[in-house]
């Protein structure tokens, strides 16, 4: 789950990372009130779950409450990379002497947290990583050993921070960022920029914070931060129905039982020249209601022209899944072509059940590759 900047800063504040004072606003008048409370100048920031706000005109400096109100009027309703601005963060403006970049993410390849730090922070950090990789200091943390202060010092010295006061402050932020990462079960904690003021104070000027969805049951206060209105409507519907669904851009609806098989199905559709419209995991079962719920989400996507239903029967029996599919089709009107591949426990029985019923729009294929080719063909 991605958090807005102001939400991520609240979590930073809880662990002791210095952040600027600010107020949330959802209207121009609230932005003016916030600027009056904070004292000018202030920065009016669009709150959207994407990057590129500054270049899109979503971040503006205001020298007075009236100007903050004017900027808020311009930013609210702005479309930034497909995200419409509905809320603003009005923050006390900061004088900046230097900008650093600091992040902690989960490196799936190494299976451990990864720190990245550079003194060349700012809006074009991706360019720095691409053109000057030596400027970006990387350091993994062994989860069995945990974080140690020497790791913060290695980041600071490796990046070339020379001022003793800055070294101490940045090292402290590094330790607190690790605390935030572990305490809130994060997948990403990023500060860009981590600024140094002319007075030598180190402070987080921005926050990008992503929390592991699977850990939200441990953090009801963080789970309550989810903005359901910002999610893709189909993904929101799937969440309500308890279906694991991710919207993609193709024409072949993908439905499988198990995350690994479903990811492989997405890959094989691409391999045969098609484009998957979604990732949809039915889970380990194949009961009729589960199939109905999943299909109900998939067919609401107007891009879907065919559905590839890929089932491997391990604990789940393919004959039970076949009956579930037919029962689901009997409960809903579905004219899109459906390609079904059954393999595993009682696969022959399952295929026989589907062949006997033989709905006109149902096609049974023996292998995953054949089924993918048929689905792509029917989707064109």
Note down, in words, how this protein is organized:
The chain has 3 domains: 22-92, Dna Ligase, domain 1; 98-223, D-amino Acid Aminotransferase, Chain A, domain 1 (2-Layer Sandwich), CATH 3.30.470.20; 232-379, 3-Layer(aba) Sandwich (Rossmann fold), CATH 3.40.50. The protein has 380 residues and is an alpha+beta fold. The two termini are 34 Å apart. The chain has helices at 5-15, 28-38, 65-75, 125-131, 149-159, 164-183, 220-223, 233-241, 259-271, 288-298, 318-331, 347-357, 368-379, and strands spanning 2-3, 22-25, 42-46, 59-62, 79-80, 83-84, 88-92, 98-107, 112-118, 137-140, 186-196, 202-204, 208-211, 244-247, 252-256, 278-281, 306-313, 338-344, 362-365. Strands 1, 8, 9, 10, 11, 12 and 13 form a 7-stranded antiparallel beta sheet that branches. Strands 2-7-3-4 form a 4-stranded antiparallel beta sheet, covered by helices on one side. The protein has a 4-stranded parallel beta sheet with strand order 15-17-18-19, sandwiched between helices. Helix 1 (5-15) crosses helix 6 (164-183). It is elongated, with a radius of gyration of 25 Å.
């Amino acid at each position: 789950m991605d958090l807005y900047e102001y939400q991520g800063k609240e979590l930073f504040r809880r662990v002791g990372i210095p952040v600027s004072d600010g107020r949330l606003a959802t209207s121009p008048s609230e932005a003016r009130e916030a600027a009056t409370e904070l004292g000018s100048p202030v920065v009016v920031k669009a709150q959207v779950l994407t990057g590129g706000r500054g270049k899109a005109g979503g971040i503006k400096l205001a020298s007075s409450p009236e100007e903050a109100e004017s900027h808020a009027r311009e930013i609210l309703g702005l479309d930034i990379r497909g995200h419409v601005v509905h809320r603003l963060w009005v923050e006390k403006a900061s004088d900046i002497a230097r900008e650093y970049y600091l992040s902690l993410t989960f490196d799936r390849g190494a299976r451990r947290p990864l720190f990245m730090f550079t003194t060349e922070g700012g809006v074009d950090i991706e360019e720095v990583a691409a053109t000057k990789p030596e400027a970006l200091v990387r350091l993994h943390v062994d989860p069995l050993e945990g974080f140690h202060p020497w790791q913060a010092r290695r980041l600071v010295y490796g990046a070339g921070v020379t001022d003793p006061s800055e070294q101490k402050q940045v090292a402290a932020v590094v330790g607190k960022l690790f605390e935030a990462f572990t305490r809130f079960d994060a997948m990403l904690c990023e500060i860009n920029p981590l600024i140094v003021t002319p007075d030598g104070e180190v402070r987080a000027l921005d926050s990008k914070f992503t929390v592991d969805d699977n850990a939200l049951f441990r953090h009801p206060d963080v789970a309550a931060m989810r903005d359901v209105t910002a999610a893709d409507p189909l993904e929101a519907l799937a969440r309500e129905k308890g279906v694991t669904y991710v919207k993609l851009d193709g024409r072949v609806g993908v439905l499988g039982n198990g995350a690994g098989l479903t990811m492989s199905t997405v890959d094989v559709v691409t391999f045969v020249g098609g484009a998957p419209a979604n990732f949809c995991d039915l889970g380990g079962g194949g009961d009729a209601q589960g199939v109905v719920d999943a299909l109900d989400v998939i067919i609401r996507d107007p891009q879907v022209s065919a559905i590839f239903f890929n089932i491997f029967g391990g604990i789940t029996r393919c004959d039970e899944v076949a009956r579930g599919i037919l029962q689901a089709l009997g409960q809903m009107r579905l004219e899109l072509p459906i390609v079904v591949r059954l393999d595993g426990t009682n696969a022959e029985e399952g295929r026989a059940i589907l062949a006997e019923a033989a709905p006109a729009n149902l096609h049974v294929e023996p292998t995953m590759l054949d089924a993918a080719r048929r689905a792509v063909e029917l989707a064109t």
